[in-house]
Amino acid sequence: MHDLTAIVxxxxxxMLAAPDRGRPADYIPPLARVDVGKFGMAxxxxxxxxxxxxxxxxxxxxxxxxxxxxxxxxxxxxxxxxWNRVGREPSGSAFNSIVxxxxxxxxxxNPFINAGAIVVADVNLGxxxxxxxxxxxxxxxxxxxxxxxxxxDQEILKSESETGYRNLALANYMKSFxxxxxxxxxxxxxxxxxxxxxxxxxxxxxxxxxxxAAGRIPDSGHRIVSAARARRINALMLTCGHYDxxxxxxxxxxxxxxxxxxxxxxxxxxxxxxxxxxxxxxNAQGNSQLGTLALERLAVRTGWSVFDGMNVPGI
Length: 315
Ligand code: GLN
Prior knowledge:
The protein is of the alpha+beta class. It folds into two domains: 4-63 and 199-302, Beta-lactamase (3-Layer(aba) Sandwich); 64-197, DD-peptidase/beta-lactamase superfamily (Beta-lactamase), CATH 3.40.710. It is 46% helix and 10% strand. The protein has a five-stranded antiparallel sheet, sandwiched between helices. Helix 6 (130-145) runs parallel beside helix 9, helix 6 crosses helix 10 (201-207) and helix 8 packs across helix 9. 53% of the residues are buried.
């Protein structure tokens, strides 16, 4: 077994000293104020050991990492019918792009770009009220992480609701094609709310455990999704989790991963570990600059990559 304590310490030290830190998202004003000097990391192994580095306890805005948990909930509600309304292909476009929606008649490429996540939010809203649906979503994430303190950051929610014109455009456009059942404002109230959840690296790595463990929470044995569904969610994270940088992330890290513009990334080493990293500075595609680099270092040091033989003796 690797010396994960030393590996996490080394990576954290390198990331804290790294000169090129990226830029925080500025289209959601409070995110622009987050200190890019910070870095946090947490690894939870299949057998329940937790390794942390840097600001692993500091809360950050979950943003698009929430799309993994939202997809999990939506598949539980409507199963494979979801795929009539959302595709499963990488978009090759930015997370908030509208360009493919016209030629593809309001069907978003995948559930991890904004348009796809807005359809997923419409499914999760069902016939309910946004407030109740957001409470249900928050309870689900608390259950996954086994932590009842997880909550929505109201300042971020208000700010994104006031500035989210592009998401409103995406929602209205899909509504015009008949791919939203509920009013765009209600769907976005849930979508912005799920994005505004605040979590730290430990909580996020804990919440991702079911994806490394064939759909069950390892310590309780509680089943969240079937093994087949966990595998498919991981496949979508690998192919679509970093938008138009998904290929580069697979090349550099080789693990299913989902990023958010708050600077967090959840990565899954199936059968081995759930990993969360956070650093607020983003690269040109809106993914955490140092979070990606930290995961690349981790994959090199551990051989944890779905393209390496994770169970080959001696690796
Ligand atoms: N809430 C953000 C948005 O809709 C999420 C984007 C992201 O994290 N990539 O723009």
